[in-house]
Amino acid sequence: MTETKKYILTKDEIFKQDDLKVEEVYTPEWQNSFVYIKALPGVLRDELEESMFIGEGLDRKQTMKNLRAKLVCLSLVDGPEGKKRLCSLADAPAMGEKNSKALDRIFDAAQKLNGMRSQDLEEMIDSLRKGQRKNSTSG
Prior knowledge:
CATH class: Alpha Beta
Number of helices: 6
Strand content: 5-15%
């Protein structure tokens, strides 16, 4: 048997990886057009997760309010090259007013692109709750 030699990436090689895939999503609700979504980098996924809580300290509570619009906003990009994000979390209230079928279509595609299943979202919330409890008792 021949053993496959493992190749271990260097820090520079990791940083050079083009690992944020872009996908096209058909949105018939919006003039039979297409939008482009891009995988979230870690920093934006953290921003999304943090946005799922309101309040501070012991008053901090989990919220799923406008989650679809938030993920859609963070995922939308300017085209197939995905050079520029179109929205930020600040745009989520306005995005939340758009057609729910279109939002669902883009949200589902963004979930798949980012490896987020419904179960993952539930686990993320549980994990954040546990972290919240640890932080509130360690002070």
